[in-house]
Amino acid sequence: MKEIQIKSFAEYKKAYQASVEDPETFWENIADKFQWQKKWNKTLEWDFTKPDVKWFQGGKLNITENCLDRHLEKLGNKTAIIWEPNDPDEESRYITYRQLFVKVSHFANVLKNNGIKKGDKVCLYMPMIPELAIAMLACARIGAVHSIVFAGFSSTAIASRINDSDCKMLITANQVYRGSKPVNLKEICDEALRSTPSIETVIVYRRTVEHTPMLEGRDKFWFEELEKVERDCPAETMDAEDMLFILYTSGSTGKPKGMVHTTGGYMVGTTYTFANVFQYNHGTSKENDVYWCTADIGWITGHSYIIYGPLAAGATTVMFEGVPSYPDYGRFWEIIDKLKVTHFYTAPTAIRALAKQPIQFVEKSDLSSLKVLGSVGEPINEEAWHWYNDMIGKGNCPIVDTWWQTETGAIMISPLAGITPTRPAFATLPLPGVQPALIDEEGVEMENIHEKAEGRLAIKFPWPSMARTIYGDHQRYKEVYFSAYPNMYFTGDGAYRDATGNYRITGRVDDVVIVSGHNLGTAPIENAINEHPKVAESAVVGFPHDIKGNALYAYVILYNDVEPSEVLKDEIKAEVSKIIGPIAKPDKIQFVSSLPKTRSGKIMRRILRKIASNDTSNLGDTSTLLNPEIIDEIIDRSLV
Ligand code: WTA
After folding, report:
1. Which residues form the Acetyl-coenzyme A synthetase N-terminal domain (predicted)?
2. CA 586 / ligand 1 centre spacing (Å)
């Protein structure tokens, strides 16, 4: 989509200005470049007090017509997806836009044939294989709502997500290899399916030859179902504000939040940001850009920047099934050479882990195809930024440090590759259409962008790809995001702004900890720990970790008669792994006799965070504590 690409810094400034002065006209001009079955009649209606945001009302479209049908004439034979398997000896798959179009339409009929209709919810628990992309697009084709659960989550996590949105169908694979380890996805699903009454059908893709237990009547094989249906499937007509998908993200309290994204605005936002941030160029067929985002499709980064954004823009997007360490730590770099990757988008935690390995792993590859490097998911520290720039980009590839969230749907603050001057560890400037605000401790906006400032990051004006609600809990949506500051969306992040207006995101200011780029709420982890029959209470905080960015530290109170032991620590970790997933396992567990609490009974996490970070010189005001004596005990024992 060259027609929506900004080509110079002067143009960026002009576009930004225009987007603030007249946001509606700005976005209308962009939305016009897409394929609508019927044009919208109202560009924007919004009220952050309710909150209620609607973009392109009255517009009718189907996002898959924009990702597939629209490209057939000119790009039909262009590769849409390159799939790279976990095992380097297995063959890569190249799927053209035309092939993808056929596969999506064909599978869409499988959904229909199994009773799925517009508005029904379908849960996907799939490995990183093209069938995941096909299944999600097939849902969108017929107007079903996909809810993708990252295939590293536990059966309990799957069940709670399925039940929260009453999914009618579950799509999974029998098994997958991640590195040298098999993961029995269907078995994990079977465990979940014991407590998910809304699921009527399970479609199973056979990824390996491993035997798969199937439940007669409920479980059906992907390939057998395809044989029963036709290949043509016209796209369902969707309203711009119809739900496209639900994606769960961790909250600081209680159960995960099902963020709801709608069709029109999400499409416009993801495609516009993809085209501009990465400066993807189609070139000729010989010098076609190859874009690779290493995220899993189970996270928002995969939704927006492996599938919807790149495909709507007609790009070639890579899907990688494996892990960066298999068969060795050179895998990413080998894939870049093999597929001639031009745009590489990954997370700081991966960069740090790879930077720790002997440099020979990098040097074995040539990496000369690379043009642009991206980073997402957490703050990238300067050291990692420089390593990425020098060792991978060889000083020739602009780095785009992209700040955004599941809730924002698309990138919000980021350089445009090769256009915006970069500054190490800074996400730099807001994209056109994004109006950030830094708020001080009194809740007042620090408006002067020519003065350095540090505070909490909020957004003052709606943007098309923002989430519209939390599924089934609009009140929570309002409380979490629209109650901190009147008339603003609150991000939950802190940020610093330099005197030229560049932003650096400093990290979460709530009880969400980002571990290896994964958002984890501390409350659900505490609940999981407390499920252990010997645990009375617990508190979980984050502490800095060289590779993961943050790791989890759990303070655990045992019941009176229980002896603390290493075995018990392992059991507690296993409990968390079972209930949430291995990514949520605490790195450190300390048994304590009580927790520092205020008179109103609130745990003073600030202190626990400092102790976990080994930063006990200044613990701040502890005068409101009910039990200040506990602090010394916790510090003493934290050293063992
Ligand atoms: C953090 C991922 C610093 C931030 C797209 C945000 C970042 C949370 C960056 C959202 C970045 C994401 N620099 N921090 N470039 N990108 N974050 O929902 O704390 O998985 O609020 O979306 O990740 O994580 P989520």
Report:
1. 12-67
2. 21
- The CA-CA-CA angle for residues 255, 269, 47, to 5°, reads 65
Res 604: pLDDT? 86
User: Which atom, in ligand 1's list, is nearest to the CA of 249?
Assistant: 18
Burial label, 344 (beta-carbon count in 10 A; 0-12, 13-18, 19+): buried
Q: For ligand 1, say whether the CB of 425 is within 6 Å of any of its atoms.
A: no
For residues 558 and 575, the answer to whether their CB atoms sit within 8 Å is no
Q: How far is CA 405 from CA 27, 137, 303, 464, in A?
A: 20, 22, 12, 14
Q: Indicate which residue's Cα is closest to atom 4 of ligand 1.
A: 378
The helices-and-strands tally (H runs, E runs) of the chain is 21, 30
402 lines ligand 1 (CB under 6 A): yes
Determine the pLDDT at residue 285: 58
Does any ligand 1 atom lie closer than 6 A to the CB of residue 238?
A: no
For residues 60 and 2, the model is more confident at: 60
585 or 618: which leads in pLDDT: 585
pLDDT for 147 equals 98
Secondary structure E strands in 294-408:
316-320, 343-346, 372-376, 399-402
Q: Rounded CA gap, 583 and 152, in Å? A: 8
The 10s digit of each residue's pLDDT in 256-301 is 899 999 999 999 999 999 999 999 998 765 668 999 999 999 999 9
- Do 163 and 195 contact (CB within 8 A), yes or no? yes
* ipTM score of complex: 0.99
Query: E strands within 278-393?
Result: 290-293, 316-320, 343-346, 372-376
For residue 528, the CA-to-ligand 1 centroid distance in Å is 24
Counting residues of the chain whose pLDDT is more than 70, the rounded percentage is 98
Q: Is the CB of 493 under 6 A from ligand 1?
A: yes
State if residue 361 touches ligand 1 by the CB under 6 angstroms criterion. Answer: no
Residue 218 pLDDT more than 80? yes
Query: Is the minimum distance from the CB of 510 to ligand 1 under 6 angstroms?
Result: no
The CA angle 350-92-360, to the nearest 5 degrees, is: 40
Burial of 170: CB neighbours in 10 Å, binned 0-12, 13-18, 19+: buried
Q: How far apart are the first and last CA of the chain?
A: 58
Secondary structure percentages of the chain, helix, strand, coil, to 5: 30, 25, 45
| Token pair listed for 176 | 């997958």
Q: What is the mean pLDDT of residues 456-468?
A: 98
Structure tokens at 441: 């401790």
Report the C-alpha gap between 482 and 625 in whole angstroms: 30
3 state DSSP class of 558: strand
Close Cβ partners of 402 (under 8 Å, ≥ 6 residues apart):
277, 345, 374, 375, 376, 411, 413, 414, 427
CA-closest residue to ligand 1 atom 24? 405
To 5 degrees, how large is the angle CA 405–CA 407–CA 412? 50
Ligand 1 center to 446 CA (angstroms): 22
Confidence (pLDDT) at 132: 98
Task: Report the predicted TM-score, pTM, of the whole model to 2 decimal places.
Answer: 0.92
Q: Is 403 in the pocket of ligand 1 (CB under 6 A)?
A: yes
- Residue closest via CA to ligand 1's atom 1 equals 378
